[in-house]
Amino acid sequence: MKKYKIKDDNDLKECEKLSISTDILIFSVSDEIQSNYRKLNKKHFSVLLAKRDTYPFEGKWCLPGGFVKPGEDIEDAARRILVDKTNIHDIYLEQLYTYGEVNRDPRMRVVSTSYMALIDKNRLNDKISNNLSWFNIAVTEDEKTINVTLDNNNEEIKFKIAKTLKEKTTDRYKYKILENDKLAFDHPLIIVSGISRLKNKLEYTDIVFNMMPKYFTLSELQQVYEVILGKKLLDPAFRRIIANKVEKTNEMRTGGGHRPSILYKYKTTN
Amino acid sequence: MKKYKIKDDNDLKECEKLSISTDILIFSVSDEIQSNYRKLNKKHFSVLLAKRDTYPFEGKWCLPGGFVKPGEDIEDAARRILVDKTNIHDIYLEQLYTYGEVNRDPRMRVVSTSYMALIDKNRLNDKISNNLSWFNIAVTEDEKTINVTLDNNNEEIKFKIAKTLKEKTTDRYKYKILENDKLAFDHPLIIVSGISRLKNKLEYTDIVFNMMPKYFTLSELQQVYEVILGKKLLDPAFRRIIANKVEKTNEMRTGGGHRPSILYKYKTTN
DNA sequence: GTAATAGTGTCTCTGAGACATTATCGT
DNA sequence: ACGATAATGTCTCAGAGACACTATTAC
Q1: What is the pLDDT of residues B150-183, one digit of tens each?
Q2: Which domains does chain B have, with CATH numbers?
Q3: What crossing angle do the helices spanning B218-229 and B235-243 adopt, rounded to 10°?
Q4: B18 touches chain A (CB under 8 A)
Q5: How far is B269 from chain A (nearest CA, A)?
Q6: pTM for the whole thing?
Q7: Could you report the per-residue pLDDT of A19-53, keeping only the tens digit for each?
Q8: Alpha-carbon span A234 to A232, nearest angstrom
Q9: Which residue of A has its CA nearest to B204?
Q10: Which residues share a beta bridge with A23?
Q11: Considering only CA atoms, which of B112, B75, B68, B111 is closest in space to residue B92?
């Protein structure tokens, strides 16, 4: 790749400082241990955020991300950042959307391509670095607004977003931040559109298995669907739907004060 | 937006010339008039291409596109290019994917955000500029390859693309160009992924109405589905599916050598 | 026994696929 | 009358929603 040589002052006028960055939505599901020995662990849908320690937005939370280096593909940059934060290589990673508004970043023009990564939290044995934290996600939504609360058991981040339908033909919305004081940049928008994308994909793909351990019970799997979709599912219906996607093993999970459950795994052959 | 000032040679080393561009897939459906007076016009799924008259890829065809200007949002740039080519303002426009590989463009690093636009060709009264041309799209596909033929009744563009499944959990494929000699850049990839996106959206949204005239018959609508999806649909099934999306008018289309058909319009109230 | 989860049976209703049938025009 | 498209009727089958029911554990 050729470097750019600036020749004279005329060229300078046209030279807008421009950078490409990538921001990554790292989603997972957290277990909250219950005091009642009979109860299953409560699950929470969660996202990994980083605390900023430099200008701009110093002290605010943001999505893990960074600049794409010269000579580096955008997806490679996303992968690099992901490995840097998690120490895991084989993580599901999908490009979401590119934010190209001129004034997103107060320093200069930064075009950011967002990615979504899904991870099974149990694989994160190493403790994550101390400027990173998992936040549980709670969303309430009506016709016109989305309210999101993120909670890491220590700090609560709330923001509110206005939805307006772009056109009737598709279900695309234009999002606008109404309230936000703890998140940097336009990251509330990225979070909301990522959640929306994940919910959709849950319904028509097997994407959920990217955030599951190798072996799991059907109840656990159902719980993951439920916390992400934000609604209860009926057992028989759920089991019918996922029946041909999973495979029984001979193992059982015992120890709860109730009937043991069969461990399943994702069916990779068909 | 602040302009960038280069201070010394050290900075120059880090200054990679980088640009943002946008490429637009403008899809439509063309009518081919039949000689048999009884027959309906045959429809073709089509895409608008531009002939390059400068380096690089001079003489090859490419998607309409261009550089995002300093101080211009990416989506505004896409809209500007679209209006420039079509003279129509209210066109459906949707961001598709951002191509961020380092060596996409031989001149320098160019990150390109692709968009898909859908249009009713009847609205293009003005003749389009003479470096633009509509190409009919024909796709054949098997497990591992996609063959695309584009035809503007004068020139035929063929290319072949290899598909490899990225992971089993979702239906995401990695595309690689196997054969291509008439299209510039990585535009075969953009075309293929755009077609795929449109096919998907046809099935679960009302996106098709963005390429229909205000009034249309159900047979015409069905034909549009058929040419894009590349398969025949059964009449009763089709009519059931779209029944609640359209509204009867009092107008009829007469003149063919057969039973007249009722004109419908997209139902905007519910 | 009790409280919890695990897992299944089955009825109903909806909706898609498939095929057949009737309707209506221009020549 | 003929050849084309327009529009509908209806049978069957698969699948989702809903509710009820049985099974099995730790304490």
Answers
A1: 999 999 999 999 999 999 999 899 999 999 999 9
A2: 9-204 (3.90.79.10), 207-266 (1.10.10.10)
A3: 110
A4: yes
A5: 10
A6: 0.93
A7: 999 999 999 999 999 999 999 999 999 999 999 99
A8: 7
A9: A170
A10: A65, A114
A11: B75
